[in-house]
TrEMBL record:
InterPro entries: PRTase-like (IPR029057), PRTase_dom (IPR000836), Upp_B (IPR034332), UPRT (IPR005765), UPRTase/APRTase (IPR050054)
Required cofactor names: Mg(2+)
Superkingdom of source: Bacteria
Cofactor remark from the record: Binds 1 Mg(2+) ion per subunit. The magnesium is bound as Mg-PRPP.
Keyword Magnesium set for record: yes
Listed EC numbers: 2.4.2.9
EC main group: transferase
UniProt KW Metal-binding keyword: no
Function: Catalyzes the conversion of uracil and 5-phospho-alpha-D-ribose 1-diphosphate (PRPP) to UMP and diphosphate.
The organism of origin for this protein: Candidatus Kryptonium thompsonii
A molecular function (GO) term: glycosyltransferase activity
Pathway membership, UniProt: Pyrimidine metabolism; UMP biosynthesis via salvage pathway; UMP from uracil: step 1/1
Name of the protein this chain belongs to: Uracil phosphoribosyltransferase
Signal peptide (residue range): none
């Protein structure tokens, strides 16, 4: 799978352990999710193209750079919201779209409830953010929508993925680059990733009870 990148780093492995721990409270979970996303963002953005632009130092003119393409961040609500700020710290000029989806607990199919995207998706690098890639239904729905709106250069950033979700995503959207921190073992009958970390949205926002 040439478009699947598993980012292997000791600090990422350590932080994933905090996120997996059922005793990690939401306040800590949010902080770790941000830090982990920052660690991944450096790798995810390393192929962004540059344009040369002159810059005048206090001493002389020299060669500098600006990003060639605009970047659009698209968190999938809710859990993806926890990954936006670390990217904005690195790319403050990025624009942010939102896609609202939740998974029906019975059918495991995604139900959409909100779409708000910037224009010019066709000229942008679109980075989709969602910490969990389980059946892959949510991310595939989001990508189909983004492509229908003109996006063609799409990266997906997830922390934990199940093999079932990766298979669906690479089959339906082989052109999309997928970045994850770990590929977990399997889904259970309720569509939860094993060993996973539970429901990321609930853990970010403290709504598990
Ligand atoms: C979770 C997760 C993904 C989706 C993954 O969201 O954050 O968006 O499920 O599952 P899939 O790959 O099988 O589609 P959830 O539906 O729980 O919504 P929430 O973020 O609002 O809690």
């Amino acid at each position: 799978m040439e478009n699947l990148f598993i980012i292997d780093h000791p600090l990422i492995k350590r932080d994933l352990t905090y996120l997996r721990d059922k005793n990690t409270p939401s306040s800590t979970f949010r902080v770790i999710l941000r830090r982990l996303t920052s660690l991944m963002a450096f790798e995810i953005t390393k192929d962004l193209e540059l344009l040369v632009k002159e810059v005048e130092t206090p001493l002389e003119v020299t060669q500098g750079y600006v990003l060639k393409s605009e970047v659009v961040l698209v968190p999938i609500l809710r859990a993806g919201l926890g990954m936006v700020d670390p990217f904005l710290e690195l790319i403050p000029e990025a624009r942010v779209g939102h896609i609202g989806l939740y998974r029906d607990e019975e059918t495991l199919k995604p139900v959409d409830y909100y779409f708000k995207l910037p224009k010019n998706l066709d000229k942008s690098i679109v980075i989709v953010l969602d910490p969990m890639l389980a059946t892959g239904g949510s991310i595939c729905t989001a990508i189909s929508y983004l492509k229908a709106k003109g996006a063609s250069r799409i990266k997906v950033v997830s922390l934990i993925a199940a093999p079932e979700g990766i298979n669906k995503l690479t089959t339906e959207h082989p052109d999309v680059q997928i970045y994850i921190a770990v590929l977990d073992r399997q889904l259970n009958q309720r569509g939860f990733i094993l060993p996973g970390l539970g429901d990321a949205g609930d853990r970010v926002f403290g709504t598990e009870n």
